Write the structure tokens for this entry.
Amino acid sequence: CHAATVKHERRFPDDFIFGCATAAYQIEGAWNEDGKGENIWDYMTHNNPTVIVDQSNGDVAADSYHNVERDVEMMRELGLDAYRFSLSWSRILPTGFANEVNQAGINYYNNLINEMLKYNIQPLVTLYHWDLPQRLQELGGFANPLIADWFEDYARVVFENFGDRVKLWITFNEPREICYEGYGSNTKAPILNATGVGTYLCAKHLVIAHAKAYYLYNNEFKASQGGECGITISVNWFGPLTDSEEDEFAAELRRQAEWGLYAEPIFSAEGGFPKELAARVAEKSAQQGYPWSRMPEFTEEEKNFVRGASDFFGVNHYTGLLISATEHMQQHPVPSLLDDIGVGSYVPPEWLQSASPWLTLSPNSIYNALTHLARKYNNPVFYITENGWSNTPSTGLQDDDRISYYRASFESMLNTLEAGVNLKGYMTWSLMDNFEWLLGYTELFGLYEVDFNSPERTRTPRKSAFVYKEMLRTRTIDYSYEPQSLVMTID
Ligand code: PNW
């Protein structure tokens, strides 16, 4: 057939929300100013500086605490519909408890929100992006079930102070990184490294804490404030290496261990932890001589409380891996989550590699992940709350790989929308370069470069900022678009 087919240009709907994301500890600085209390990243970077590759910290970071106007100016330059940022718990409640509210901290976020709203930029606010007040960590942090009550108290202060203007709330950013990396291994604060035990304990307490904040909002604030409350989970795509049954089951186990642990209790119809994974951990625990499964159970009451407790599913999506039933020379501590599942992973060498070893451009992985989730969890509302690409400091402003990555993400999102998935918005990680956790300032994700050597922390748009701006303006992908100069304006 050679009928003259005009290829229909694929566009995003006008009400699709485009934005950028950041997180408090990674950009704010002002770590001890105006009454802010110490959090676990302050504590760890100050007392154990060698855990950060360049021995840096977030004491000043991008100094966003003193740059509200410039930060909002960048959002205006890009033409963002929304901006996702997080609140620092210990800036608002210095002790972690709600006995004392730090008005200077409230003022900072009020100024930011009000400045954004002047220009019609919608705030998408995360209550917790990894910076637990240090005192609460000393009391066990997410290993203590009381975290649910402490978090609820904090959430109340937040909803009371900002809920008149903030309509999209995210309780937790990435339970996997909080629980697995922070408690079950040693790659995020508080580097507890309680392998095989800490992850599962934290997972249970965290989803209950999430549900408490959700019902607090739902029962006491929603009617008057009219917003929505959800959670953000990191969902990379784990597909089978071959179409064998063994590889498919291995991929399913890996998905359950990576994000099912947090998504299943909240978004599945039955609630509770993923079944195959729970059975595997129970079996291994028994073999290893534990009198109980290392994966705790939910009571029926807890299961029903958590099940359905979210207005939307926030997804941080970066990459994909191919999973096989056979492990190739991978060594894991016993017990540990990776030993529990015992699967192999593979990255095809032709996938474009970023500055971060874990991050490659995995073809159509947004589509693969979201269509899978939509099928599994009855098509909830989704927001992609992070998606991004890293470069090294030497890349400077000519970040062509990031442009390729964002164009591929847009293609994959259009495929996702055409498949009928209820995807409503997309935030890039990140608006600007920032403190990349244990990698310090060695891996950078910004559309804007930040000069960490200048006291002003000067922000300069990269080439990708111009391309993202054009994609937002036209709501489509133009592969031939080349910015004429790297001079930014507000249109
Ligand atoms: C996110 N993975 O974490 C975080 O929310 C950000 O704070 C962080 O700066 C950003 O990604 C870049 O790392 C992730 O294994 C951690 O695919 C791990 C993964 C993805 C995101």
In short: The mean pLDDT is 97.
